[in-house]
Design a protein that fits this description.
Layout lengths: L16 H11 L1 H21 L10 H12 L3 H14 L2 H15 L15 H38 L4 E6 L2 E7 H20 L4 E2 L9 H6 L5 H11 L3 E2 L10 H29 L3 E3 L18 H24 L9 H6 L2 H19 L2 E3 L1 H9 L6 H13 L8 H9 L6 H9 L5 H9 L9 H6 L5
Parallel strand pairs: 3-4
Antiparallel strand pairs: 1-2, 5-6
């Protein structure tokens, strides 16, 4: 057998590349190295702009050329970095040498020693990860989540008054509306979006053990903590003043925990939608040319929601691992975070794939109003709650002398199927006030939805 040509090992880089590829712009090795080059360039410009160590500020064209070098980091730079790293066997040192080569090309060798000045590799790495993760979350992942939430909000509003037989413990229960049940997911997910949007992207820039030792040795009179803060915040990040060699990664743990939590809410949505499909509350819209089963031609399977479930589980496992591993570093530094952080893109990739499947899946289902109405009409016993509650109110108000209304309705309804006529006959014989009796006689399972419609109204911007 002939060997296959090189193939992507991960399905995210193979089968699903078209769906998750935008994350690679930020969370790939190339994306990380582009950010590293940017940090090195910006630190050099930061120092020269302040005339540190007798340097002079670069002119506008030189600054533009250096920033363009970082922004346009591409195939040629990737290839050259690979050559440099083959010798250095150190990824950040290779980036330093690449920037030095660019300075030589631009005739700026006089400031070459300010490249990576007083830096440990983690000064560059932590800022680069913060920049790439922030870009991936705000530019790729969050927009997709908001798109899903927007579709759910539209569905909730459209079906806000569509009565639905609830199923607590899987059994017929007090009716609700389909829109209200979807609105619950909208509310839950929007809380997580707020949490995710509020995460600080922290950065440190304080040397080999977070003490500014080399900085002070080079210039004891400079206010290095203030300069560090200014540099980190100039990149749009939040400054972490107290660290070891590494930024402590607490912000990453907070972010990944929140994303995993959002994923678990989405997983709950998928299992509910799958169940609604299985009991006929939702119908699937057949897609032209699609096959549900290789042997059963009638099948339309809820594969998008099943695929989303699996990818959310993979994502949660990786995100949980990231969150638990990254917050621990032996003494002042170990390398457990190095390999771990290279899998951030994989964790978010599975989440993004799930979001894409959910979004497409929502466009391929429709609420089966007739099925919902028929199920409600077959479960009049769920009005037992309303009847016994009204009787209690009537007894308290002195308009009834019925003893133990709950027990009376339990005897009538528990484990039994009764019809609307059965219930109306029962209500008609109750010793309660005329207004209360009229309300109960007018009640049906389809109208016993309380304030569900109004509760969804909070989602409607109109």
């Amino acid at each position: 057998m002939s060997p296959l040509p090189p193939q992507p090992l991960s399905p995210l880089d193979g089968r699903y590349r078209a769906t998750v590829g935008d994350l690679g712009e930020h969370l790939s090795e190339a994306g990380l190295n582009r950010a590293r080059v940017r940090v090195e360039v910006e630190w050099l410009l930061f120092l020269t702009e302040r005339g540190m160590f007798g340097s002079a500020a670069l002119d506008a064209e030189q600054e533009r050329a250096l920033r363009a070098f970082a922004a346009e980091f591409g195939e040629a730079e990737i290839a050259r970095l690979a050559e440099l790293e083959a010798t250095t066997r150190h990824d950040v040192k290779a980036v330093e040498y690449l920037v030095r080569e660019k300075l030589a090309e631009l005739g700026l060798t006089s400031v070459a020693e300010l490249v990576h000045f007083a830096c440990t590799s983690e000064d560059v790495n932590n800022l680069s990860y913060a920049l790439t993760v922030r870009a991936a979350i705000t530019g790729v992942w969050l927009p997709k989540l908001r798109d899903v939430v927007g579709a759910l909000r539209a569905l909730a509003i459209a079906e806000r008054a569509t009565p639905l037989l609830a199923r607590t413990h899987g059994q017929p229960a007090t009716p609700t509306t389909f829109g209200k049940e979807i609105a619950v997911f909208v509310h839950r997910l929007e809380r997580q979006i707020t949490r995710i949007e509020g995460v600080e992207y922290l950065g440190k820039f304080s040397g080999a053990t977070g003490t500014f030792s080399a900085h002070v040795a080079a210039d004891p009179d400079a206010d290095w903590p203030a300069l560090s803060r200014e540099f980190v915040t100039s990149l749009g990040l939040d400054w972490n003043p107290l660290t070891t060699q590494i930024e402590s990664h607490d912000w990453q743990a907070e972010l990944y925990t929140a994303i995993a939590h959002a994923g678990r809410i989405l997983h709950n949505l998928c299992t509910d939608v799958w169940t609604y499909i299985s009991i006929g509350y939702l119908t699937q819209i057949p897609q032209a040319g699609a096959t549900g089963s290789s042997t059963m031609p009638h099948k339309v399977n809820p594969i998008l929601f099943e695929n989303a479930e699996a990818n959310l589980e993979l994502s949660a496992a990786l995100l949980d691992s990231l969150a638990s591993t990254l917050v621990t570093s032996r003494l002042q530094r170990d390398l457990t975070d190095s390999t771990t952080q290279r899998n951030i893109g994989v964790a978010l990739g599975h989440s993004l794939l799930a979001l894409d499947n959910i979004r497409r899946g929502l466009d391929e289902v429709a609420v089966a109003g007739d099925a919902l109405a028929a199920d409600l009409d077959g479960n009049w016993e769920v009005l037992g709650e309303a009847i016994q509650t009204v009787i209690r109110a009537e007894v308290t108000a002195g308009r009834s002398s019925i003893a133990d209304p709950y027990a009376m309705l339990k005897e009538l309804t528990r484990g039994k199927r009764i019809t609307g006529d059965d219930l109306r006959t029962f209500v008609d014989g109750l010793d309660i006030g005329a207004d209360a009796k009229a309300r109960l006689l007018a009640l049906t399972p389809g109208t016993y939805t309380g304030l569900a419609d109004e509760l969804v109204g909070a989602l409607d911007p109109a």
